[in-house]
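Notes from the 1:1 (GR / supervisor)

We went over the backlog. Supervisor wanted to see one worked example end to end before approving the batch request, so GR pasted a single chain during the call. The sequence is below; no edits were made to it. Supervisor asked that the structure be written out right there so they could see what the output format looks like.
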Amino acid sequence: MPVTDPARDVWNDTLLQNPHQVSDKRSRVQKMFAAIAPSYDLNNRLHSLWMDQRWRRKAVKLANLKPTDVVVDVACGTGDLTMAFARARGEGTVLGLDFTFEMLPLAQSKSQIANRKSQINYLNADALALPIADQSANILSIAFGIRNVSDPAAALREFHRVLKPGGRLVILEFSLPTNRILRSLYNFYFSKILPRTATWISRDKTGAYKYLPQSVNTFISRESMQEMMKQAGFTDVQAFPLTFGICICYRGLKE
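Structure output shown during the call:
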């Protein structure tokens, strides 16, 4: 009897017509990230031309970090944004959470190599059910993860729950340039070139790098994201386009 590879074709052409409407999106996303974890950082650096690290530094700046702030980084992946917060604050604890366990040993290893003075803790947890008490964090961040959550509106309400009054929510997410010519050029790269080169580097069989452009192109608009944040209870919601609008940093406050 042939052995079936559980990582093969997690995303196929039919499912990718609108991946956000797939009923078992959560488990498919989890399998996908588990499969690509070992090559995740390399693909991020190469295919963003190292801009992904600049975007994370901008997110930290927009969070208005204070020395005593409790920072929670949701969907932390291999820990890049978690470590960026740790570098910015020097001392204190930053908590990184991700529901794909395979990402966390990589994050822990990177933190140990960096030998940060700030203590970083990592935890396997879901954005929809954070194991954190009400009103216990000053900053909650999520980088390139809200699009992968099965219910973004519920996740935003959960983020609001754990933030203290005066707390800041910072979201990094991919978008598309508003300029028609730039958008056309970027879409060609994003939909035709990146899936091939990233799949070759990662030897991915899940369809992860076909999912990436489709999940961006079929996700809610910038205006809808800001409205969803407001409906979750956040105020002073703003969107900061980065690199011609390829990435957006959203920020909201909890009163």
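Supervisor's comment: DSSP finds nine helices and seven strands in the chain.
Batch request approved.
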